[in-house]
């Protein structure tokens, strides 16, 4: 069976179990059930822990974005301004390639209205959000992935199919239907890889 690693923030945590179920007959799917990848520097550390513990993966599918672009009070700038975000994405790419894995990068999902919501994975952190930020960070990430020849799972465009972008009440995370829609597309792109 192929070994698949899913990395990313609480959006990934919403669809990971569905992906595992969809790929159960052909793939072993790994992910952190207790913690999300938060910002890109944290995902870099988390990826290293999986590589150390489980060795080589055939495919690594990952996303970062919301935490990186978050301006967490009392800070006045994003946790990772775009140039730092790209720096850490490059480091993650390097480590995944060192592991010998195919890479798929997932874009950050769209936002309906500017606001903030608590991270739903128990960190106690409030995540600020703006679709303008999402567009900027996705644009920079997609440019990098194109330059690196990395497949993109465009969850941003996928979520536009729904008039509310499959957003739940906090306007950041997705409804169960949204997570299932993400899982179907994610499983397909993993199988294509």
From TrEMBL:
Residue span(s) of domain SGNH hydrolase-type esterase: 58-181
SUPFAM superfamilies listed in its UniProt record: SGNH hydrolase (SSF52266)
InterPro entries on file: SGNH_hydro, SGNH_hydro_sf
Classification via Gene3D superfamilies: SGNH hydrolase
Protein's name in the database: SGNH hydrolase-type esterase domain-containing protein
Native species: Paenibacillus allorhizoplanae
Lineage: Bacteria, Bacillati, Bacillota, Bacilli, Bacillales
